[in-house]
Structures are given as structure tokens and as C-alpha cells.
# Entry
Amino acid sequence: MGCAGSSQTKGDGSVKKIRKPKPWKHTQPITKTQLMQMRDEFWDTAPHYGGRKEIWDALRAAAEADLTLAQAIVDSAGVIVQSADLTICYDERGN
# Structure
């Protein structure tokens, strides 16, 4: 018998498998250099919006890795994945 609020999970507990996000499109054509600059700016400023730098570093490493390695990074960093494409994630503290 379980808790009143418990639910059945699939074999591996509450771990959500990640997947590649849908392709992103800018409103205007941009060069690869511009795209890389935009990515660097995002990752440089992201910790200022909340959360620990270590978690942001783990998310960046996961975003730049293949899916198997990305899953391992997210799992080992204790990141709680709400959206399988990593657009919504939390750390253990809820940040």
C-alpha cells in the first residue's frame, strides 16, 4: 500500500528521459558566428537569473553533449527535468 498521493512510475522512478529540442529559428537569417555569440551570451548571463552556477554549468555541458552523456550529466548533477527538451529544469532547491 502506498501513500495517498503516490502514483505509479515506469521502472526507473521519477527520472525523466531527455530528448533533443525542436529546431530553433531566428526571425532573420544569422551567421554561425552570430549564433555562437548568442549562445555564449545566454550561458554567461543565465546564472544571474537565479540558481547555482554549478547547475547552469551542468546544463550547458548537457546541452552541448550527445543524449546519452547529457542524461548522465543531468542525473549526476541532481537536475530535476520537467520538460524533456531541458527548457524547464530545477535543482534540488527548486531554483
In short: DSSP finds three helices and two strands in the chain. Residues 1-13 have pLDDT under 50 and may be disordered. Residues 32-45 form the longest helix (14 residues).
